[in-house]
Structure prediction request, 359 residues.
Amino acid sequence: MKLKQNLMHKIDKEETDKRSVNAVETETKRNIFSNIYVEEAALDYPITQMVLQKFAHSTIIPIRHYKDVFNRTNQHFGLQKQHPALILAVKNDSLLYKGPDVCQNFGFSNFYYTSFLLNCIFDCEYCYLQGMYPSANIVAFVNTEDFKKAFTEIVTTEKEPVYLAASYDTDLIAFHSIIPYMDYFYDFFSMHPDIIVEIRTKSAGQVFYNEHAPLENIIIAFTLTPEEIIKKYEKHTPSLKARINAIKTAIDNGFKVRLCFDPIFIDDEFNSLYEEFYNYIFSEINPNKILDVGYGFFRMSADFFKRIKKQRINSKLFQDNYCLIDGVLSYPVDQQEIIKEKHFAVLLKYIQKERLFAL
Prediction:
């Protein structure tokens, strides 16, 4: 009770940042969180205070530790995803991880990833997060200075540049109007050019590109799929046209842009879409103005797949047969090679082979 009184004392409703609330982009408006859980240890952090002012009308629920809520048993990811809560927490364990083999390292041997957020505001049917986490609630870690220390330590121990995937397990650009993490890290990354940062996104948001100068070591990686796949599998995400507009803004403002055609689906419903899709993309986006292209087929840890299949019982995607190789489910290699050859015949018209990275 005392903690709740302290929380409410720190929230001055009359000073709510109305401008920030009104600026919430379309894709995040559905996520004006009705419930916000706050760890005791997270209370006094600047991010916490900013969020509580921005969402002053939310119900604030004090908690001892985020795992008390996030790791509870018998949660249903799909149902919870309809109205997720926000959990503000301090991350005390590992802040940096070695990049997994299922993710592209784009030629960097020192490949790491980090997670400022657990979960994503979007609800893509194929997303592995629904098999990775027990909860659809979003955990936002507020101790940014500790992350910076971890990044600095790894840079000092590595002899080569570090490739840091900062947005694999979430979408930082889509979340920017709720917590602008890249604002908090921009100056840090500008002072550490030996950290190559990839920010992967499906967002149509353009605020970050308009408010910051580009950095040589920041890459904005846009995930693109045919509109038919967006409508079927990528719930709550912006349209292809909206993403292209964001790409154009990022390029015009000088940001390094990567296009990610990942995941690719092998399906009679979609196979005929890709050639026209690639041609359309490069009729809208000058291939000479992008850094490179990432390409990969739908793939997932067998353990994650099994958990998701139990919840998405009506999903054709999780009823199809896949090939299991080293604990990862995907399409049979021979099918992948046939489709890849067809797709590359189109892509190589626009992108040199050395700028096309396939997993």
